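Observation: inputs received (chain + 6-O-phosphono-beta-D-galactopyranose).
Thought: call the complex predictor directly.
Action: predict_structure
Action Input:
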Amino acid sequence: MSFPDGFLWGGSTSAYQSEGASEEDGKGKSVQDVKEPPEGTARFDICSDFYHHYKEDIALMAEMGFKEYRFSIAWTRILPNGTGNINPKGIKFYQNVIDECHKYGIEPIITMFHFDLPEALEEKGGWLRRASVDEFVNYARVLFNYFGNSVKYWLTINEQNMLTMQGSIIGTGAVEDEDEDVCLKKTYQKNHHMLMAQARVMKMCHTNFPDCKIGPAPNISLVYPVTCKPDDVLAAQDFNAIRNWLYLDAAVKGIYNPIVWSYLKKHNALPEMENGDLEEMKEAKPDFIAFNYYNTCCVASWKDANELEPQSLMQGIRGMYRVVSNPYLPKTAFGWEIDPEGFRATLREIYSRYHLPMMVTENGLGAEDVLENDGRIHDTYRIQYLRDHIVQMDKAISEGCEVMGYSPWSAIDLISTHEGFRKRYGFIYVDRDDVKIGSMKRYRKDSFYWYKKVIASNGADLK
Ligand code: BGP
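Observation:
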């Protein structure tokens, strides 16, 4: 067992998926509040009602022995219109949450932005406008001013790569245009603004709050070639660059990944930049790399493609690669491949590319858990999933990877990005479903008791 002393065991949530109270105490609307959820899935207005249950929920996290709790701040609770007036009740709420964590010795780890752009900004054009850089920097300044002295760990943007590659599924505004190349350009223009915003915020953090640590939080997972045919290997390198390295090369080294750059250039889709942008990106340095990991993916060269058109950058790019399923991996009930060894491979790869400490900010299994009559939830499949991943993380650490913490998704049940409340991830069951708001009572799942032992033994007892 190789987990270092002080290893940050904990769990994650995001504001828009857990808090609810979407119109309470002066909160403004975010893009998540106005989107139409897929049929049969819950709206994001009540969620797990963490807003009213945070004391109880954090007490349960403390009972599990959490060393950290990673949560996000809703931009619209702090600045209801995205810019302008600060909402004192929003500040108060998050100060209460932070204080409650400290009460139990839990380190709060805050994501500044987790998929919930203020609708007022989206209406003006959102991240497509250069002004979005200043808007995010302004919001981050408010967060540092109020919470910079009580929160040590900060994450800038959750899964910027997923926002870029599948914004329409997440509900954060897909770009639309009849011309595919124009769509591509707009997509990467937004991405450039996020990269610039992140760079400035990392710099601001280090200048003004030298005791704080900050990093990006993309979703990183290795892309495998479907065979050892050189064309498949090149296809895997292409998708690795587009899915993963673009985001970390920019955040850590301040450079644009050359494979992505040449692909954008070929399609006349290079983002517009201002003088000094690339220099600013180079000046900003993260203290660690936070990343979310669920599964690897597998690609084949486009040359062997059949007629199927990829629908998104996540499925493939005509002429380059297409995503295929991996015949060696089992799947969850929701069809997600399960690949613990891929987790280890991903940790190794990130560490050998960037040599920065890593923080795992999401990893977990979504399932339709059943609350038994005796109030128990036997989520053995989740225990199995987490155990297998922890074993591989342990190996990666013993092979020299620096890992600071592990924060599974999710600390408590919450609403999935697009598959509703029935797709549960938590250690703590919340009594509601997609149609009916139940008692909202909290129940400890079997994984709750299991994870408690894992934390108490610093990862030694995984039984
Ligand atoms: C990540 C997001 C989370 C979370 C998780 C599980 O991409 O950061 O917000 O939702 O995935 O995904 P899903 O909810 O689609 O099952």
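Thought: report the result.
Final Answer: The chain has a mean pLDDT of 95. The pocket of 6-O-phosphono-beta-D-galactopyranose is lined by residues 14, 17, 158-159, 162, 219, 292, 362, 366, 409, 416-419, 423 (CB under 6 Å).
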